Give the backbone structure.
Amino acid sequence: MKRVLAPEEIPADVLEKAEAWQARRRNFDPAREAATLYAIFQEVRAVPESEWDERTSLQRILLRHPKQNRELYSKANLVAGYRHLVAEGDIEADPLIEKRIRMKPMRTQSGVAPVTVLTAPAGCPGKCIFCPDDWRMPKSYIYDEPGCQRAERDGFDPFKQTLGRIQSFESIGHDASKVELLILGGTWSAYSRDYREWFVQRCFDAMNAAGDPSLGTSASLAEAQARNVTARHRNVGLVIETRPDWITPEEIVHLRKLGVTKVQIGVQSLDDEILALNKRGHDVEAVRRALGLLRTAGFKLHLHWMPNLYGATPERDRADFARLFSDPAIRPDELKIYPCSLIAGTELYERYLAGEYRPYSEEELVALLADVKPTIPPYTRVNRLFRDIPAHHIQAGVKLSNLRQIVQEELVRRGQRCGCIRCHEIRRREVRLDQLELRVYSYATDLTQEHFLHFVTNQRYPEPGLIAGFLRLSLPNHAQVGSRAFLPEIAGHAMIREVHVYGPALGIGAESNGQPQHAGLGTQLIEAARRISREAGFRRISVIAATGTQAYYAARGFERGELYMSGDTA
């Protein structure tokens, strides 16, 4: 397996597209367009907040002020022009203008900049009958998925991918000082340990170099991580994806040494017969065992679930989805729902041609998802409802890219609402502290007692019940439960598995102007977690801190250990 592709190994069409895109950006000179840009920004600032429509207001202004060639300014052009005029002293920095010209505001509304990178193409130990196997990509990915195209353009170089995404975010007006790094590429644990450590080290090098180019090379992973603690672009979460049958005590320890805080697990089904029919290579008990080890080690649990697998029916899928939450050993923090897509070249496609498999119709799939979404408990976030596979690869069945919207419309028609975190996030709306109240939702797993502490809007806010921030607190059933048996550092400790406060991503130390971030909600959540832990008899509390959050927790009384940070509950 090659770690990085040489330029001559990258397909010509990928390089041509990348060069054309780069040329468009290079050829824009904000100084030459300064007068027109100035007029645009004056109009942007003049529109009252009550009259501003994100979908149409900016477009109308741009139509009145086109470029000399009659093309419209892109948002990347606007951001570059705004920065130029501020630097020249022609206009004063204005958060209102920044907000209104920012490209893709949804990307960082959860408070961090998500940077996705792909590992190099390699084999996978799995033999799943539904999984595409594109030789240009890691197993299960297809060459023209958006993230895959970027990775291939960069030769799967982790440094280039990470630095490129950070620079891309900042070029369109987002703050990327707080980075959630998502490493995708099939079964992470199946790559060699040497490759995994090198890959993560180079990602950290890129985050460090984004703020200081002299930090682009480190002597070791530990050095790269140490630099990132105080870097301008800090890692606040590190995510990998793997299979449940690859989670072992040794893997748990290695994940923490890498700095991993969240694990995506391909569960796909909680029905042993369905797992066997689809040749998953593991059973439900392996899922329970893996999640127990991960949860008691403090990791966030992000599960993948696939309806419409070979052998499934809509009714069987409804029962299977219910097991995600009725089984105490499962109960995920986050969930991706990936309806099975029928891809040419897979064994499932051969079964389809033989008449042995039928994809659900749009009506069946929408009804299924609309039935299950209101049953999701308040501690789980549904991140995806459909995988971003280009429609031309899907041979039959549902190809809708806006499936989430259609399901949402069906829920509105029924007078129902999804119960998940994502559907209740406050996002970019402003809120005062007196409009929030702290709630605690407690639930048991097979090995722990979990407490989901969350600040929600109260009756003083126009829409009560929106989540402004949350904390996941895990109390082990006994000192040696699960991973605690081989992690003496946290044996007998309460565990903070996640702290998250919403609002657009702001720079480290930036003012919030009514946004939940930096309003002290994180500190209040931590103190509430300490109190609950103390009342439950725990004297010590630990946190699974990402490298870039260590300074934050240190300021709140936590001390760094080998793999975790810990402090007193008193």
The radius of gyration is 24 Å. The longest helix spans residues 193-211. The chain has a mean pLDDT of 91.
